[in-house]
């Protein structure tokens, strides 16, 4: 196979000399400035004239922003693979996906032995390298929580915890020359990395053939394995002027399949010429020949990965340039699930721009299975993933931009999290009431309602939204506000995911000084009484006070317990104490604490890593007012044995100042949102006790916390007049009912 169709990349092979430690760093920076793609350093830990290569790579990662980084190659006998796996993954995470892993079996055994590395025969060295690859890949595989047991006689782990996973598919490239090493490349590696100076004429072709044969025997496509080549100016292929270099490198790409050309030099002028003259000319010439020959250049997937594809999804026709994650991809475990639900989608698309969202949506409409849209993935319902369908994951649309300082107007990408938003605007003394957890995504909350810990003073999140950017079912992009398509603007504030894919939200933040945040843990042996007393205090408190109560049913070793999270939205500690002290009489206090803190420290940034579980079972309702009867009924739900957790969130105060018909969230007279979670997968028990005890006290429900699939829940979510307006909007903007996963409103009903 003369040309494997790999995207061409160009790099440098630098000497890590410590005579002037900043010289190799400067050459690495120059490599990036010259437009090249890769910086590599030799690794000889026993050489006192050299900087430690791993330390140098880490330092260079901090001095650069684009180039990928690798040793060329790491000396495995002195780099334990389990530690190396975590080091590479850490550097990849810190550098934004720029770490690669060049590995060698070892040489210079006297020096290695002198450093305590032991001595291996050539055959043992190959065995050790093979075992090391298994250990490294196993530790990077976080798709399972089962501890890793891998390796063999030379490198083994027994019950090691997995992770972290790299942020991108780190290439494992092997420096190999002899038959067993070449077979190992074909069987397990991602790249073959020889140096031209060690090869005789014909060795490159013979090595490719050996790698390809081993790959085929292992069920791999030879194109999965990148061919890299170390070259030295003035020798071999690189003699004469740069124009002759271009001819030689073009031939190596088209006739020998080399995809990465690494220049071994420490001369700045040569590096600059390589980036400015040679690399562009080689790319242009190879691209032209490939176009003439019809050479396939798309990334190649393994046979094992292809076998995991879902029938009915046209994977090869997915929108060009959009990040696509399939079952079997390393990143699949990170994007398949939500906070509460473990999903198995057929494909996850991760667009970076609104145009990519539009292209992805248009393509997804033609595929089989359900279509889910995800902003943060924290939704209790789990509707932002699916089984066998397509997921549009907006995580890359995560910008936070101040549009107008005077009006405190902020533009938020739908994939941003509220913790990141809170941190970004806190320095201005601003905040947005937005839930109680920093990992919640902007898009979901800002279209459903937004019940937050500042809500009784500042209202719902949607009450401060002034504009949306939304991609509609037909792929068109609309900027919507009270002046532009006001009826759609009305619907987007409360209809959840029914009307389109929101890609950006413009919102007016509030001026929020430091707040008092209090946490109290109660014995909840009498849950009904505790809920009644707590709820009565909350609904009668000044608006500065917003409180959430979480009541757990307990288990074998302890009885029911409750935690109240309360914010006094002011730094006036005297007023806070006066408002908070009565809560200490709501029930037996087990623990209490309070502090003055910025709101952003309560809703702090949270790393998103969702691995879900079984689909959650929950019931949700909106309680008009707390009464002894309502408290007792909720206590019965908790003590029934069918509920593991009750959550109550205050939604009165400023939430109720807005007219019921002002937004599609029409529930403007209730005091609390109440949610119950089952402790088992079968929902019949929870439904029965909720319908009997709690439901008679409720008036409406909040979309984000309800998982009951019965159609009457739609009537609880949207009163008749609201539902009628939303059906009209669906007939206008989504007549084909593309968005049918989140409390679906059928336009034909």
From TrEMBL:
Gene3D superfamilies: 3.30.465.10, 3.40.462.20, Luciferase-like domain, Uridine Diphospho-n-acetylenolpyruvylglucosamine Reductase, domain 2
Alphabetical list of InterPro entries matching this protein: FAD-bd_PCMH, FAD-bd_PCMH-like_sf, FAD-bd_PCMH_sub1, FAD-bd_PCMH_sub2, FAD-linked_Oxidoreductase, Luciferase-like_dom, Luciferase-like_sf, Oxid_FAD_bind_N
UniProt entry tagged with the keyword Flavoprotein: yes
One Pfam family in the UniProt entry: FAD_binding_4
Gene Ontology terms for molecular function: FAD binding; oxidoreductase activity, acting on paired donors, with incorporation or reduction of molecular oxygen
Names of the cofactor(s): FAD
Xref: SUPFAM superfamilies: Bacterial luciferase-like, FAD-binding/transporter-associated domain-like
Key words of the record: FAD, Flavoprotein, Oxidoreductase
Positions of the FAD-binding PCMH-type domain: 340-512
PANTHER family per record: BINDING OXIDOREDUCTASE, PUTATIVE (AFU_ORTHOLOGUE AFUA_1G17690)-RELATED, FAD-BINDING PCMH-TYPE DOMAIN-CONTAINING PROTEIN
Family that this chain belongs to: Belongs to the oxygen-dependent FAD-linked oxidoreductase family.
Protein name: FAD linked oxidase domain protein
């Amino acid at each position: 196979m003369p040309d494997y169709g790999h995207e061409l990349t160009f790099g440098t092979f630098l000497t890590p000399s410590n005579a002037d430690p900043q010289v190799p760093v400067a050459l690495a920076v120059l490599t990036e400035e010259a437009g090249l793609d890769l910086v590599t350093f030799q690794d000889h830990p026993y050489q006192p004239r050299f900087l430690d290569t791993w330390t140098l790579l880490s330092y260079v990662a901090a001095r650069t922003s684009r180039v990928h980084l690798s040793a060329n190659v790491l000396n495995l006998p002195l780099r334990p693979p389990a530690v190396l796996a975590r080091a590479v993954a850490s550097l990849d995470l810190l550098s934004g996906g720029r770490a690669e892993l060049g590995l060698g079996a070892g040489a210079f055994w006297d020096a290695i032995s002198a450093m305590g590395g032991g001595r291996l025969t050539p055959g043992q060295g190959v065995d050790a390298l093979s075992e090391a690859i298994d250990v490294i890949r196993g530790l990077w595989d976080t798709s399972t929580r089962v501890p890793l047991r891998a390796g063999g006689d030379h490198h083994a782990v027994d019950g090691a915890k997995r992770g972290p996973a790299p942020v991108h598919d780190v290439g494992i490239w092997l420096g190999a020359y002899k038959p067993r090493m070449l077979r190992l490349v074909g069987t397990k590696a991602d790249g073959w990395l020889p140096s031209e100076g060690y090869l005789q004429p014909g060795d490159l072709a013979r090595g490719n053939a050996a790698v390809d044969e081993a790959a085929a025997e292992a069920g791999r496509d030879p194109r999965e394995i990148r061919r890299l080549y170390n070259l030295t100016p003035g020798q071999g292929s690189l003699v004469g002027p740069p124009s002759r270099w271009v001819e030689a490198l073009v031939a190596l790409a088209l006739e020998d399949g080399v995809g990465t050309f690494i220049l071994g030099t420490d001369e700045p002028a040569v590096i600059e010429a390589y980036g400015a003259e040679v690399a562009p000319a080689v790319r242009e010439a190879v691209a032209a020949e490939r176009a003439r020959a019809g050479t396939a250049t798309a990334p190649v997937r393994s046979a094992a990965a292809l076998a995991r594809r879902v029938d009915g999804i046209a994977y090869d026709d997915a929108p060009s340039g959009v990040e696509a994650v399939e079952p079997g991809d390393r990143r699949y475990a990170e994007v398949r699930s939500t906070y509460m639900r473990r999903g198995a989608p057929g494909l996850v698309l991760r667009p970076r721009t609104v145009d990519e969202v539009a292209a992805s949506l248009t393509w997804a409409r033609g595929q089989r299975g359900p279509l889910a849209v995800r902003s943060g993935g924290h939704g209790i319902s789990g509707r932002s993933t699916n089984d066998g369908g397509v997921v549009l994951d907006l995580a890359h649309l995560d910008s936070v931009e101040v549009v107008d300082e005077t009006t405190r107007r902020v533009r938020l990408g739908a994939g941003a999290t509220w913790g990141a938003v809170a941190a970004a605007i806190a320095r201005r003394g601003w905040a947005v009431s937005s839930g109680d957890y920093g990992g919640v995504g902007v898009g979901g909350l800002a279209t459903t309602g937004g019940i937050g810990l500042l809500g009784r003073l500042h209202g719902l999140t949607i009450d401060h939204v002034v504009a949306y950017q939304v991609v509609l079912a037909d792929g068109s992009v609309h900027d919507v506000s009270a002046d532009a398509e006001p009826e759609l603007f009305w619907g987007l504030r409360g209809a959840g995911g029914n009307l389109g894919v929101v890609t950006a939200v413009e919102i007016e933040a509030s001026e929020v000084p430091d707040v008092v945040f209090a946490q109290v843990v109660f014995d909840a042996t009498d849950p009904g009484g505790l809920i009644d007393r707590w709820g009565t205090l909350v609904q009668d408190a000044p608006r500065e006070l917003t409180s959430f109560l979480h009541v757990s049913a307990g288990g074998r070793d302890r009885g029911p317990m409750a935690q109240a999270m309360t914010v006094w939205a002011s730094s006036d500690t005297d007023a806070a104490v006066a408002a908070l002290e009565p809560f200490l009489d709501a029930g037996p206090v087990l623990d209490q604490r309070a502090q003055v803190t910025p709101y952003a420290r309560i809703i702090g940034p949270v790393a998103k890593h969702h691995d879900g579980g079984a689909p959650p079972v929950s019931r949700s309702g909106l309680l008009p007012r707390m009464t002894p009867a309502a408290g007792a009924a909720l206590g019965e739900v908790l003590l029934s044995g069918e509920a593991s957790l009750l959550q109550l969130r205050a939604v009165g105060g400023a939430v109720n100042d807005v007219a019921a018909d002002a937004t599609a969230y029409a529930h403007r007279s209730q005091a609390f949102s109440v949610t119950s979670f089952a402790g088992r997968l079968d929902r019949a028990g929870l439904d029965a006790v909720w319908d009997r005890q709690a439901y008679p006290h409720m008036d409406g429900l909040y979309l984000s916390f309800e998982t009951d699939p019965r159609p009457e829940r739609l009537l609880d979510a949207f009163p008749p007049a609201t539902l009628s307006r939303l059906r009209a909007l669906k007939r206008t903007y989504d007549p084909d009912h593309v968005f049918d996963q989140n409390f679906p409103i059928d336009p034909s009903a």
